[in-house]
Automatic annotation (TrEMBL):
Keyword line: Cell membrane, Membrane, Transmembrane, Transmembrane helix
Membrane protein topology class: Multi-pass membrane protein
Ranges that cross the membrane: 6-28, 40-62, 74-93, 123-144
InterPro entries the record matches: MgtC/SapB/SrpB/YhiD_fam, MgtC_SapB_SrpB_YhiD_N
PANTHER family, alphabetized: MAGNESIUM TRANSPORTER YHID-RELATED, PROTEIN MGTC
Major localisation: membrane
Pfam family for this entry, one: MgtC
Originating species: Cohnella boryungensis
Annotated ranges, domain MgtC/SapB/SrpB/YhiD N-terminal: 17-146
Name of the protein in its database record: MgtC/SapB family protein
Length: 240
């Protein structure tokens, strides 16, 4: 390799790769523990890949550093990592009805790529500090958020019910009896098929405020056996 700023020892290269494995793996463990699509190995691969590209961008072309017509730009390949990591993040985001999930996982993939770039550039303090902040956010802030904001979380249910006089009111009273607050209710007749309309069926969208998971499980059990409810879908509002 060349001399000066463009030179790096094999020992230093190995340290940076191992550090990127550790940083990406720590973040990936939390995602694996939460049973997300992108987990332990995916985060390691993203972080190591970003580190390798950063190392390549800085030191991979050192033999051309002394050429008169060559201008070294260590940030060029790194910039492509930042923009290119988006396709992995998009693959982790899924939409199911009213629900969008995977945003936190997509963000964690993006940030481990940034951590990998920092490690590859030898920006150790920032890479370690960022890893700590990410783990603090995913582990501790996640628990704090669930504890203090669970009351504000909304659950959405889509039901196909028998549209007879008093049936819908009875379903609403059942929810309120279980401590569930009906925030919003929309009757959607357009989505019902002709056969459903002839059988007096209707689709109803509920937006509910539920305090905890036990209350939700109890409500779902009762709705599943209710004679006026033909089918329903539970759509959790804010999965990470």
């Amino acid at each position: 390799m060349g001399e000066g700023v463009w030179a790096i020892s094999y020992w230093e290269l190995a340290i940076r790769i191992v550090l990127s494995v550790a940083a990406g793996g720590l973040v990936g463990l939390e995602r694996e523990w939460s049973n997300r699509a992108a987990g332990f190995r995916t985060h390691i691969l993203v972080c190591v890949g970003a580190t390798s590209i950063m190392l390549l961008s800085i030191y991979g072309f050192s033999e051309f550093a002394d050429e008169a017509n060559v201008r070294m730009d260590p940030a060029r390949l790194a910039a492509q990592v930042i923009s290119g990591i988006g396709f992995l993040g998009a693959g982790a985001i899924m939409r199911n009805g009213f629900t969008i999930s995977g945003l936190t996982t997509a963000a964690s993939l993006w940030v481990v790529a940034a951590i990998g770039l920092c490690v590859g550039a030898g920006f150790y303090f920032v890479s370690l500090l960022t890893t700590f902040v990410v783990l603090f956010s995913l582990f501790l802030l996640n628990r704090w958020e669930k504890r203090f904001f669970s009351v504000k979380r909304r659950q959405k249910l889509e039901m196909n019910v028998c549209c007879q006089s008093g049936h819908l009111g009875e379903i609403v009273r059942l929810m309120e009896t279980n401590g569930v607050v009906v925030v919003e209710m929309n009757v959607d007749k357009k989505e019902s098929s002709e056969s459903e309309k002839s059988d007096n069926r209707v689709n109803v969208h509920f937006k509910l405020k539920i305090k905890d998971g036990d209350m939700l499980v109890k409500l779902v059990d009762q709705l599943a056996t209710h004679p006026y409810i033909l089918s329903f879908r539970q759509l959790v509002s804010n999965p990470a």
